[in-house]
Amino acid sequence: MADNAKVSDDADADSEAMRRLASGDDCALTGIMERWKSRLIAYLLRFTGSEAVAVDLAQETFVRLYQSRNLTLSLDEAGDPMAEGDPAGSAQQDEQSRAVQKAIAALSPDLREALILSEYEGLAHAEIALVAECSVKAVERRLSHAREQLRKSLSQYLKGA
């Protein structure tokens, strides 16, 4: 129950900040950036595979947000990908983590987008369809293809699983 209240409070804070930004309070952008910068960079890092590109894209996103002052922006609360952290264990876990990142980066953009939004951001298929501007069936196909390609790419790590 507390998580639902936090999500509601965060959504209210974002909505209020967007209203303030749209009405000319440029400082409202600071609060939005503080709440979303690390999650956005984490998402973009997973999508692009490059920290420098992810940081640049995040900055560009906030610049565009400021320039458009879009009142309809909706920022859904999901688990913080940065909180997952690095596998603090063995060298094998580090190697596996790098292999997974590399395999995800090798997916085509549409498959990578669907997989990241589903697995890392926790979006439902219908939400992914809205983001990707495709049908729910297309999302299901993309996720199926992405998972199959990952199974093939990571087969050496899955033998014991």
Give the helix/strand layout.
Layout: H1 2-22, H2 28-48, H3 51-68, H4 91-106, H5 109-120, H6 125-132, H7 136-153, H8 155-158
Overview of the molecule:
By secondary structure, the chain is mainly α. It has 2 domains: 2-68, no CATH class; 89-158, Arc Repressor Mutant, subunit A (Orthogonal Bundle). 73% of the residues lie in helices and 0% in strands. It contains 8 helices and no strands. The protein has helices spanning 2-22, 28-48, 51-68, 91-106, 109-120, 125-132, 136-153, 155-158. α2 (28-48) runs antiparallel to α3. The longest helix has 21 residues, at 2-22. The two termini are 34 Å apart.
Uncertain residue segments = 71-88
| CATH class value of the largest domain | Mainly Alpha
CATH architectural name of the largest domain:
Orthogonal Bundle
Number of helices: 8
Report mean pLDDT, rounded to a whole number: 78
Q: Largest beta sheet, briefly? A: none
Q: Can you tell me the number of structural domains?
A: 2
Number of DSSP strand runs: 0
Helix content bin: over 70%
**Based on CA inertia axes, which overall geometry fits?**
globular
CATH homology group of the largest domain: Winged helix-like DNA-binding domain superfamily/Winged helix DNA-binding domain
N- and C-termini, Cα separation: 34 Å
Secondary-structure-derived class: mainly alpha
